Amino acid sequence: ENMPAEPQENMSSEERRQKKKTDANRRKKERRLANARVEKAKAAEVATIDAVMPTLEAVAAGVASAPGTMRSERRDAGEGRGFGMFATAQIGAAEEIASTVPALSVVFDESAADVCGFCFACEEPNEREVAVVLQRTDKGFGLILDDRPSAGNAALIAGVVKDGPNGGEVLIGDRLVSIDGVAVEGGHEGAIKLLRSACERLGDGVGVPCLFSRPGRVFCAGCNKLCACAGCVKAGRLDWHKHECQAFQALPQRAKAGSDTSVLRLLLRFRMTQQPEIGDWCDHKETTTALTSLQRNPLNLDRTQLATLAALAGVSANDAGAIISMVRTNACQVERNGKKAGCALSALIGWHNHDCAPNAAATVMEDGRIGM
To answer: Model's pTM, two decimal places?
Structure first.
């Protein structure tokens, strides 16, 4: 390349043709090498998650945790086909094969204020009055009042002490409207004064009659990314949510500022379920351990993005990649109010979906279970 080019006029037509061919081949080789360098650079930035076939041990563990009413069984579908689901009874069209509460789920940011982050309920919010005679012990009523400024005079219940004297009767999100017939004014400060006055007036050992306003769903003012229906609040799921809420609030602001944080929140929820002192948000749902029985398709992810997500969520890059791969391969879409509201991941559904020509379909039912 550094040799001086021979003048074209001194070359024969054959030599010119040969030189033209040589130059074309050289440029072609240079382009090929340049493309190879680009692909190599891209490969360094991409984490490839290979296809995964579950081990026999994982399959056995998943089957052991499957619902007892399942009308199918999982077994080897033949060489090269993986594991398939086979009916164990005659099943008619539109009949349910099996159902379960999914192992992992998340509601997208756009629907977080309207769809319950646990059971996906989305009824219109409605307030109803609830009369409760508050009981007290030497430690008090076991209620935590929200001391943040808020509109209106009622006092907001921010927490209920577990195993306290009013657990199950008063719920997080309730608003204390009146105490012993006297309307609450001035929020939590006014409520505290009225409670003290009522206790002095009624004497020890006597309950305090109160009136509460109970919302149809409670929006978490901590993370602003989850609401819970009244049923899930009563089941104590907002108490469980405080763990993932605190983890989300502790994230850098830039991580919470995106248009949708659902992937990050899904990984945070997974992390909470892996901590023995926290566990799952209910005891009759599918465990995240069952997800290891799922078959996964190969997936390419941006290596830097994957590492960042894993670090923010406090999970390993391997776990983060596996969950994202499972979601893209097996997740069931949650549809509420005529739009995609979230996604749910279930081993049970993943098992039934592995067929090129499926004759069963998954749906997220009104009560939050996934049904086949």
So the answer is: 0.76
Shared domain check, 194 and 287 = no
Q: What is the pLDDT of residues 222-242, one digit of tens each?
A: 899 999 998 999 899 999 999
Q: H/E/C letters for each residue in the chain?
A: CCCCCCCHHHCCHHHHHHHHHHHHHHHHHHHHHHHHHHHHHHHHHEEEECCECCCHHHHHHHHHCCCCCCCEEEEECCCCCCEEEEECCCCCCCCCCCEECCCEEEECHHHCCCCECCCCCCCCCCCEEEEEEECCECCECCEEECCCCCCCCCEEEEEECCCCCCECCECCCCEEEEECCEECCCHHHHHHHHHHHHHHHHCCCCCEEEEEEECCEEECCCCCCCEEEHHHHHCCHHHHHHHHHHHHHCCCHHHHCCCCCHHHHHHHHHHHHCCCCCCCCCCCCCCHHHHHHCCECCEEEEHHHHHHHHHHHCCCHHHHHHHHHHHHHHCEEEEECCEEEEEEECHHHHHHHCCCCCCCCCEECCCCCEEC
Question: Is residue 359 in some structural domain?
Answer: yes
The CATH number of whichever domain residue 181 belongs to comes to 2.30.42.10
Residues 292 and 353 in one domain: yes
Reported as a single tens digit per residue, the pLDDT across 80-131 is 777 778 889 999 988 988 888 999 999 999 999 999 999 999 877 788 899 9
Question: Is 16 a domain residue?
Answer: no
Q: Which structural domain, as residue segments, surrounds residue 163?
A: 128-214
Domain total in the chain? 2
